[in-house]
Amino acid sequence: xxxxxxxxKSFHSGASLLNVLKxxxxxxxxxxxxxxxxxxxDDGKGRGPSSNLTPASAATPVAPPAPSVVGHVVxxxxxxxxxxxxxxxxxxQTVLLKPQAAGQIEAVHFKEGSIVKAxxxxxxxxDAQYQATVSLRRADLSKAEANLxxxxxxxxxxxxxxxxxxxxxxxxMAASDVLQSRAAVEQxxxxxxxxxxxxxxxxxxxxxxxxxxRIEYTKGNYVSLSEDPLAxxxxxxxxxxxxxxxxRDYMEQFGAFQSQGNAVYDxxxxxxxxxxxxxxxERDFEDPAIDAMTGTITMxxxxxxxxxxxxxxxxxxxxxxxxxxxxxxxxxxxxxxxDSDGDFVYVIDENDxxxxxxVELGTEIGTTREVISGLVSGEKVIxxxxxxxxxxxxxxxxxxxxxxxxxxxxxxxESGYDLPALSPGTGQDNxxxxxx
Length: 436
Fold this sequence. Notes:
By secondary structure, the protein is α+β, with helices and mostly antiparallel strands. The chain has four domains: 3-52; 69-80 and 326-414, conserved putative lor/sdh protein from methanococcus maripaludis s2 fold (Beta Barrel); 95-232, CATH 2.40.50.100; 238-322, Elongation Factor Tu (Ef-tu), domain 3, CATH 2.40.30. It is built from six helices and 26 strands. The strands form seven sheets. A six-stranded antiparallel β-sheet has the order 15-18-5-14-17-16. Strands 4-19-24-23 form a four-stranded antiparallel β-sheet. Strands 6-13-11-8 form a four-stranded antiparallel β-sheet, with no helix packed on it. Helix 2 (128-160) runs antiparallel to helix 3 (168-200).
């Protein structure tokens, strides 16, 4: 064998060895891949690289983030709800001026529609006849007094004379004349008084202070006792507003009516043009019986009307609110939850953790509810986001800004109620309108 043949054999031997090494390397890599896959997937279920770690070296699970919720601060509110009624303005006094003396009207001393005061002269009726009657009655009185004087003196003379010269009948007659003369004097005085009264009727004066209406009989007209009124006067200050209150509303405050006198309601009225009247009303009286047809009792209020704004006969809107406050915590119905154990809320404690709290609910006021027990003013509850919360779970509360937000009172008014909010723990009304 020559050298060329030896070189070819050596070459083929080297190539075979190289192929063997490549094959072994590929097999080794495939084995490693199989081992890695087996460690990564256990029985076909992937557990990740950490599955080869022992329990002692396993990583601690990461807690989920606290859910975000909308919080609400519980506030007190006055639950003594106000009500509104339709009222009518009425004068406390109305006077029809009818003539009490017959005669011709000589003068009218007022302007129609003006305010007159009690005692002001309004009409003058011709008084010549009445002056003459007074003079006649005065003369009759003088005559009667003269007769009395004569009878007294005669009686005294008879009694002073010797008893043997005066009969008993003369003494009795003299005493009787004295008594009759005295009666005649009294009669004359009464007649004079009547004549003076009739004379006074010729001067028609205002019996009350108020606004006088139109003149029915002007100067020159003859009036008699049977004529229609000369004019009418209506008292306008103070003035009365009357309205019908349902018996149910009246009975709610019946105890206050019996014990507190006027201090039962804060009452205001709204004029026909929608303006709130500046003065509050005072209880005047109420009818003694409930109307069987309507089931209402008529209430009467008295108002200052020095400006003359309230006109008799006009209709107004009467707003009433009990003076006695009924303060209680209120929460929006949105914060309430219920299950087989009853109504409850999630209270946010000082660690921002949600704690279940059972509550006893009271009156429904618009979109809010009275809380009889279970919450106090100032506590924080979850308003929205309760579906993601479990008892004891940390939460991330967000309290919406109150700037421009609607208060419980405003939310209640939207439902037709009047519910002024109170400062927590103070029991003081924070509404800008005041009571009523």
